[in-house]
Design goal:
This protein is of the alpha/beta class. Helices cover about 30% and strands about 25% of the residues.
């Protein structure tokens, strides 16, 4: 696990000692950086004397794992539960993580959602163009959608996923009217794009607005039996950001 975290830059393998400038390697068993190097300095009488570093640095400082009393392995299990467990999952979360406190689990899941929102906002970009296919979908935080998941709060959000490139955008949505959705689509999706959506009536205008429009009826399936098109990945991104305990 520690090697995996180092490889993906979630933990540092070496750091510089702030006292002597020496490179300190991570002790993977204690997750500590320790410097005990001996070096010379000059005292007030310009005489060389030997001093020894006595620096201890916790590897979690300045990382995702900072400011938590949980060990690294438990935090990783929490993140895995957030990403992988389906609803209902309250009992399974406590079993999988070994954490008895529901409050601790909820706090960490909130932290995970904040990171997802930050990532989505930072990585949202304009999608599509001629020859490209973009899946779009919207979800209301606080209402079941297609009976597939449970969401929180009372806010519509809207997103797009470009097939092949895996580029996305996710933005808040005031309402699902044709005017509002069309403005956002034109802002984030280039003309000539093939757009795959559900059967919401506000999307019916897309063929007349410079796009090729295909639909999927989520009430029955996520893959259209006639066109073979699917509109699932963007919904997964949205659910990932707003799913709850």
């Amino acid at each position: 696990l520690i090697e995996f975290l180092i490889k993906h830059k979630l933990l540092a393998k070496t750091i510089k000692c702030k006292k002597c400038g020496n490179d300190i390697n991570l002790n993977t068993e204690t997750l500590m950086f320790k410097c005990r190097r001996r070096y010379y300095i000059k005292n007030d009488h310009k005489k060389r004397i030997v001093v020894r570093c006595n620096i201890d640095v916790i590897a979690k400082i300045g990382t995702w794992f900072c400011n938590s009393n949980l060990d690294v392995g438990t935090i990783c299990r929490l993140v895995a539960c957030f990403l992988m467990l389906q609803h209902p999952r309250q009992d399974r979360k406590q079993i999988e993580t070994g954490i008895a406190s529901p409050t601790t689990i909820v706090d960490w899941f909130n932290f995970c959602r904040e990171v997802c929102v930050f990532w989505a906002e930072k990585n949202s970009e304009k999608l599509g163009g001629s020859g490209h296919t973009v899946e779009i979908d919207e979800a209301k935080i606080g209402k079941r959608k297609y009976n597939r998941d449970r969401l929180v709060k009372d806010q519509w959000i809207f997103g797009g996923y470009e097939q092949g490139s895996k580029k996305i955008f996710i933005v808040p949505l005031e309402d699902r009217t044709e005017k509002t959705l069309l403005e956002i689509i034109k802002e984030w999706i280039l003309p000539g794009t093939t757009i795959v959506s559900d059967c919401w009536k506000s999307y019916d205008c897309l063929n007349n607005e410079g796009f090729q429009h295909l639909t999927v009826n989520h009430s029955y399936n996520f893959v259209d039996p006639d066109t073979g098109e699917k509109c699932l990945k963007v919904l997964i991104y949205i659910i990932l950001i707003i799913k709850i305990k």
